[in-house]
Amino acid sequence: MSAFREPKGRVAVWTEERRRSDEGRQRLKAARRRAGQALHAEWTKLRTVPGPAWLLLGVVALTIAVSTAAVGATHCPQDLACPVDTTKLSLTGVEFGQAVVAILAVLMISNEYSSGMIRTTLAAMPNRHAVLAAKAILLAALVLVAGAVAVFGAVLAGHLILPGHGFTAARGFPPVWLSYGPALRAACGSVLYLGLIALMSLGVAVIVRDSAVSIGVVLALLYLFPIVLAFVGNAHWQHRLERWTPTVAGLSIQATTGLRSLAISPWAGLGVLGIWAAAALAAGALALRLRDA
Amino acid sequence: MTTRAISAPRPDAGLGDGPRGGGFGGLLRAEWTKFRSVRGWVIGMILAALLTIFIGVFTAANMNIGCGINGGQQKTGKACLPYVPHGPGGEIVTDSFSFVRQPLTGNGSIITRITALTGEHANLGAGPVQVGSGTMVPGLAAWAKAGIIIKQSTHQGSAYAAMMVTGSNGVRMQYNYTGDIAGMPGSVSAAHPRWLRLTRSGDTITGYDSADGTHWTGVGTVQLAGLPSTVQVGVFATSPDYTVTQNSFGGASNDSGPAQATGGFDHVSLTGASPGTWTGTTVGDGGPAGLRPGGGPGSAPYTRNGGTFKVTGSGDIAPVTPGPDGGLPTVTIGQSLVGAFLGLIAIVTVAAMFFSAEYRRGLIRTTLAAIPRRGAVLAAKAVVIGAVAFVTGLVAVVVSIAVGVPKEENQGPVLLTAPVLTEVRVIVGTAAMLALAAVFAVALGAILRRSAAAITIAVLTVVMPFLLSALNVVPAGVGDWLLRLTPAAGLAIEQSIPRYPQVTTVTSLVQGYYPLSPYAGFAVLCLWTAAALALALVMLRRRDA
């Protein structure tokens, strides 16, 4: 592993500087190889059990099914004004899909704790941050792919169904399709949203370790704030909750109408979720490093 | 006790022939020992109670209201409240109408014929309507009313009984704000007049209606307890806000504006000891601000020509219901129970682990070796976790209400009180709802053997329908069906204020109105729990542990 090697033969041309840069390159190469190994190991662990594949399928199926049901149930009769954000409505399924994403993320680490596998993992790969990073990268990649499929399906459902239910361009409703800028932002943002939810859940699970408790904490994080928001009458607290809680701020990325009345702009809202995810992962990394496995 | 708590359950605990009590009792003790000896579960339950209280009190402490009616100075809190009358039953009521009256001592009766009920209301047009700013257009609110009334006094909230014709609900007999009995259907006109009669005999008042003034039909007989010997009797008219409900989307989208109604009366005749002179009085402030038809408070606009009257009024004689339409900021005790959602998540988490943890550690094989009757094991677990969740929930709910409700009231909103038995039902019912959710989660834990999935399903099926419906993510109709069919229906047990058909109101979930009645909703959750337990039993028997 050590990058230090005695030059042989061409002693004269080796300068100290050259030797150092070579050492750096070697070190980088080794680090890259280790990272690759860590990723490969995590990938092997994931694909050799059926759970994750089913959960990813669940994300796609649940998101599309709920979105289809939501748009299917919504009609705008001829003589009524319908204050509906059609894109947001089409993406309703994300509210459910995120729960499955959270399960996937939590199980990725808590399953190792419950089976004791974590000790094997850390014995094979003593760099704990690399383990967590590999898990995070792999999880994010998988969720982004599944999320993209799910969100595309949801948008497609809205695109196909809503015009037939009275939400036509003739009545001033923008198209629910990726060619329409705000809808594209909402769709791409929703995919990223799912990725960030996965990372936040992973961070929580690393801290909590137990799968049941982790999922309880994550579900509370996801769904409690919107409920409290519905009840709180104080305008200041409403504003704070809308700006700073992970799901309410994060889902503002789905808005395509009434952006001026949002407490936080769509991308900034997603950024708030990003802060939550980063904080959870950082706390998780610290906990992983400081505690015995 | 403590040492035994840490050790495994006593081997004799569930066998039925042990020295320490047998049968199901022993099994219960074994499961209880398992529960209380896992420190995390006990802490989880305590956390569930604390978090419920914290969130409930936090929400209650941030209910403060602001107001600035008709461009006036912005005020907050209690300064926003007008005088709030209470009805004879203690409930908060609206009592504003134009009253042309005279005192009546002792027994007597009043008869009239109504030939017209017309009205006008603010032009709703597009956009929202500010109180008093719209132009008036002809039209009648569904519950605009005009008729005859016998009332204890002209004080708001005093007892009464009245016979009336309404905008689109036919003839009604109403009494003491919450009472409502239907009489002749159909609307009134000169061609189809309505005769109304009220007779007083002691505390008993009987209402009659008739199409011709000769053939009378009794509509109802009511007792107004403690009615003084001299009461006020006469003709009245009033109209609540004219409301158009947007049925297509979002349960809370109502357009409404102030309205007034005018009743045309003739053949007014009074029998009994009365002076014979009529006085026009506005009870209350004459209805929504900006619509005081003629003169200030105190005199009601009416014209009289012998026995013929024309009375115009605005307001309502009805209970105040939650929601923006009452014109009064209100809260119900159910609104300090928001924390129960967090309590639910914590309780469900512990409950799901209570079964699935046995699979993880392999303890289930020991358990089933000791007690081969698998149904009994499931039942014992359900009883233990249900009881623990019930007690936890009860403590949390009682403290939430005891601490949260005074905080809410301090900030201005009026607490809509309910009869004691109803409040007991809300408190005990919420605890029972949490207990059922816990049993539901135990059953899911037994079916799925995985706590994460069991917790997610139990939480999502209860929380998501409420959330989707409360935040108007899905159309109102879909949201209502979700709250009828899913386990979330059980939340209806928290509804403390009944739905009054005689009041047009936005029935919003956040205000505490559920699409099912409290016990029907609770029964739906019971059915789901029973179904999950049955499936768990089948799975437990069929599968190897």
Q: How would you sum up this structure in a few lines?
A:
Helix content of chain A is 73%, strand content 0%. With 293 residues, chain A is mostly helical. Chain B has helices at 2-6, 23-36, 39-60, 340-361, 363-370, 374-410, 420-448, 451-470, 476-485, 518-542, and strands at residues 66-67, 75-76, 93-95, 97-122, 136-138, 145-151, 160-166, 171-175, 179-182, 194-201, 204-210, 217-223, 230-238, 242-245, 254-257, 259-273, 279-283, 302-305, 308-313, 317-319, 330-331, 414-415.
Describe this structure in words.
The complex is a heterodimer of chains A (293) and B (545). Chain A has 293 residues and is mainly α. Chain A has one domain. In chain A, 73% of the residues lie in helices and 0% in strands. Chain A contains eleven helices and no strands. Chain A has helices spanning 16-47, 50-72, 86-90, 94-115, 117-124, 128-161, 181-208, 211-231, 235-244, 246-250, 266-290. In chain A, α1 crosses α6, α4 runs antiparallel to α6 and α7 (181-208) crosses α8 (211-231). The longest helix of chain A is centred in the middle third of the chain and has 34 residues, at 128-161. In chain B, α3 runs parallel beside α6 and α7 (420-448) packs parallel to α10 (518-542). In chain B, the strands form five sheets. In chain B, strands 4, 5, 6, 7, 8, 9, 10, 11, 12, 13, 16, 17, 18 and 19 form a 14-stranded antiparallel sheet that branches. Chain B is an alpha+beta fold and 545 residues long. Chain B contains ten helices and 22 strands. Chain B is 35% helix and 25% strand. Chain B folds into two domains: 15-62 and 332-542; 93-327, Jelly Rolls, CATH 2.60.120. Chain B has helices spanning 2-6, 23-36, 39-60, 340-361, 363-370, 374-410, 420-448, 451-470, 476-485, 518-542, and strands at 66-67, 75-76, 93-95, 97-122, 136-138, 145-151, 160-166, 171-175, 179-182, 194-201, 204-210, 217-223, 230-238, 242-245, 254-257, 259-273, 279-283, 302-305, 308-313, 317-319, 330-331, 414-415. Classes of the chains: A mainly alpha (293), B alpha+beta (545).
